[in-house]
Design a protein that fits this description.
This protein is an alpha/beta fold. It has helices spanning 6-18, 35-47, 63-69, 96-106, 128-139, 159-163, and strands spanning 24-28, 76-79, 116-121, 145-151, 166-169. Helices cover 34% and strands 15% of the residues. The N and C termini lie close together (12 Å).
Length: 177
């Protein structure tokens, strides 16, 4: 269950209903407010083959949703400090090898023939070289790929990366929620 962020969820639900999904979203706001949770719920919206309504989230019971819950869905590519695609000696930033591996995996056929979803949690930790490589992908994205860049410091990303993403701002959830 997602708590708060009703305005963002309404917007994203309208995007799903209209089928006007952008190739890249930049989720920015304070740490630990639910940006990644909503990105993963949207990933479930794209990857769940059983859901009957165009809403944020999957059905929760099908094979796709089970794989998503286990973090094992082959069409969900999650990159973060805790879970890089390619391990690195440098613990301060995510390097270019991760973006090259992301590009390689996005080039493969999807498991079910649908979308592939890339979630980059902590996108502000991408090295300059990694940002340059990501920019090239965002300029000419794979046809069935959707990117979610999650950050609490959007100004640390290249302006050209920010300009190629739909920006969705998040704030702290109210105490009442």
């Amino acid at each position: 269950m997602i708590v708060g962020h009703e305005r963002n969820i309404r917007y994203l639900t309208r995007v799903l209903e209209r089928g006007s999904i952008a190739h890249a979203y930049l989720f920015s706001g304070p740490e630990a407010v639910g940006k990644k949770t909503i990105a993963l719920a949207l990933a479930a919206s794209f990857l769940c083959r059983e859901r009957s309504a165009l809403t944020v989230g999957g059905c929760g019971v099908c094979e796709d949703c089970g794989a998503l819950a286990r973090g094992a869905h082959p069409d969900l590519l999650l990159i973060s400090h805790e879970q890089p695609l390619i391990a690195s000696e440098n613990k301060r930033e995510l390097g270019i090898k991760n973006i090259h591996e992301l590009q390689r995996r996005l080039g493969m056929s999807s498991w079910r023939g649908g979308k592939k979803v890339a979630v980059i949690d902590g996108a502000d930790a991408l090295s300059r070289d990694a940002q340059t490589a990501l920019l090239k992908i965002l300029e000419d994205p794979p046809r069935a790929a959707v990117f979610f860049l999650i950050t609490n410091a959007p100004e640390s990303l290249f302006p050209t990366i920010r300009s190629r993403c739909v920006r969705v701002g998040f704030a702290a959830v109210s105490d009442g929620d």
